[in-house]
Amino acid sequence: MPAESTFKRFVEVGRIVLLKSGPSAGKTAVIVDIIDHNRALIDNPAAGVPRQSYPYRHLTLTPLTSKKLPRGAGSGTVKKVLEAEGIAEKWAATSWAKRRAALERRRALNDFERFGAMLEKRKRRDGVRKSVKAAKKA
Fold it and tell me: pTM for this one?
């Protein structure tokens, strides 16, 4: 009996991917069809990603998959299946998506908002430091 692989993310129809480059960078899409060993057909009309051929080197495979999606499904079918399975909500609930959203919020801050964030961080750090010092004394 062969040993079970620790690798879990495969390029497959229904795999949710994160786009690393291009005009839709940072958005998620789903692999609709596999073209060859370098490219896949992706689509996600709900997120504004048009149906297109995309190289694997510009995709990041996520742990999410849609098992109900048939091979070569049209944009309407893709939209219905993704909404029915709540893929967008599942992605938004992952720590990966939350980190990306926090990073985007942080990048969008202006100078005054960054200053306020620094003060909040300082206040939080001082509170932790004081509570640790009090716990050591006790």
Answer: 0.80
